[in-house]
Amino acid sequence: MAWTWRYIGADEGEPQGTDLPEEAFTSRGDAESWLGEHWRELAEVGVERVALMDDDREAYAMSLEGAE
């Protein structure tokens, strides 16, 4: 089981023109902790929402707007 983040831009697609991290995690908690440390940088490059993926299944999605 691999946990990853899918990045979603304003048009509901992947943000363009930037190299986004391609991290994979062995646990949901590790993935969520990583996002807690990096969400500001993601928002600065055009990521508006993220979806936590459990292999190919979406566990949940959330907005980075107002995440402070």
Which helices and strands appear, and what pairs or packs with what?
Layout: E1 3-8, H1 28-44, E2 49-54, E3 57-63
What this model shows, in words?
The protein is α+β, with helices and mostly antiparallel strands and 68 residues long. Helices cover 25% and strands 28% of the residues. The model has no long low-confidence stretch (mean pLDDT 90).
In short:
With 68 residues, this protein is of the alpha+beta class. It has one helix at 28-44, and strands spanning 3-8, 49-54, 57-63. A three-stranded antiparallel beta sheet has the order 1-2-3, with helices on one face.
Question: How large, in whole angstroms, is the Cα Rg?
Answer: 11 Å
Structural class comes to alpha+beta
| Tally of DSSP helical segments | 1
Q: What letter string, H or E per element, gives the SSE order?
A: EHEE
Amino-to-carboxy terminus distance: 29 Å
Name the average pLDDT. Answer: 90
The proportion of residues in beta strands is 25-35%
Helix coverage percent: 25-40%
What is the overall silhouette? globular
Low-confidence stretches: none
Q: How many extended strands?
A: 3
Taking the sheet with the most strands, its summary is: 3 strands, antiparallel
Strand order of the largest sheet: 1-2-3
